[in-house]
What we know:
Order of helices and strands of chain B: EEHHEEHEHEHEHEEHHEHEH
Structural class of chain B: alpha/beta
Distance between the termini of chain A: 32 Å
Distance between the termini of chain B: 50 Å
Largest sheet of chain B: 9 strands, mixed
Largest interface: A-B, 45 and 56 residues
Number of helices of chain B: 10
Shape of chain B: globular
Helix content of chain B: 25-40%
Number of domains of chain B: 2
CATH topology of the largest domain in chain B: Rossmann fold
CATH superfamily of the largest domain in chain B: P-loop containing nucleotide triphosphate hydrolases
Strand content of chain B: 15-25%
Oligomer: heterodimer
Strand order of the largest sheet of chain B: 2-1-7-6-8-5-9-10-11
Number of strands of chain A: 6
Order of helices and strands of chain A: HEHEEEEE
Radius of gyration of chain A: 17 Å
Structural class of chain A: alpha+beta
CATH topology of the domain at 3-68 and 102-112 in chain A: hypothetical protein PF0899 fold
Amino acid sequence: xxxxxxxxxxxxxxxxxxxxxxxxxxxxxxxxxxxxxxxxxxxxxxxxxxxxxxxxxxxxxxxxxxxxxxxxxxxxxxxxxxxxxxxxxxxxxxxxxxxxxxxxxxxxxxxxx
Amino acid sequence: xxxxxxxxxxxxxxxxxxxxxxxxxxxxxxxxxxxxxxxxxxxxxxxxxxxxxxxxxxxxxxxxxxxxxxxxxxxxxxxxxxxxxxxxxxxxxxxxxxxxxxxxxxxxxxxxxxxxxxxxxxxxxxxxxxxxxxxxxxxxxxxxxxxxxxxxxxxxxxxxxxxxxxxxxxxxxxxxxxxxxxxxxxxxxxxxxxxxxxxxxxxxxxxxxxxxxxxxxxxxxxxxxxxxxxxxxxxxxxxxxxxxxxxxxxxxxxxxxxxxxxxxxxxxxxxxxxxxxxxxxxxxxxxxxxxxxxxxxxxxxxx
Lengths: 113, 303
């Protein structure tokens, strides 16, 4: 989905940060992508390949840290791992699980020189 | 162009005026990342972070500002902690839209669905029912053409068409520009019809009070599970075209159960623009939302 728009946002954030550091080149971009976020990491990687071309981060290595999904099961009254939004609680099998973590999409850090 | 959904940096047109999607303002300071003593021994520090912190200690005399040397050798690399949300700019703009709308008591909805779910027909029926009682305006999002805006204008309601070009969703910046063009009345209703797409619009906050997902019974009842992000983001699901149920094998209860599996709190109204079924309930839902928006404005700015 919309990974191209997200890739453009990533480029904007990376460029801002790199310029603020007075960097000549960005060598590595580290993203943090939650398993329950609305982004497909591999598609984003593909789009970033294109979007970062001719930017200060041209050719930069891309590291994507996956953040596991977690949810709050209303039936169990506790936090449980959640691989998909529509999964049942692994403990009780109920579908009353509210996602609480793994929804983030962050640019975590960049390596510049 | 994105090979997944076809979205990309195409031309965007708002009410006929073209502008490039690249016109995103640069804003917000970048936070430099400094190693502090406590962080080096933090138990949750990843190996990579620890390594960076040690590198800082070794190269502090280089005086390289807030970042620090990372790799040994001739070139001096620096790791710069950013921690910025990829959707941060969109969300900030959406927040501005939301505050601007709230300050004027305008109740805004973001209508999302797959193409062909009957969004525009339902909107036309809704606007006809509200005509003369409630001031309304519509923002129409489509890749191309002004067909939908023309259908809305035929009801006498002002409509602004946004053509996203190659884009697969509306974003908060497009809506902010549209709001500047529209002369919205205080305490009115704003209906934003997003690009027909059950995937991408889920992630983009426009500043609306609620996302409303429209699922027509000519689609599969398993759509909420196939496209969970959208049904998770919506507060209301309109199960549309229910007048066609006698001709279909669509299992209404199963569709609703699937939607609630993804989003236990989602409200559901069964509607048909053709037969009028559920329209009264939908209008009552709209009027409750509008009353709430008006009340919030009065509380915020009495008098």
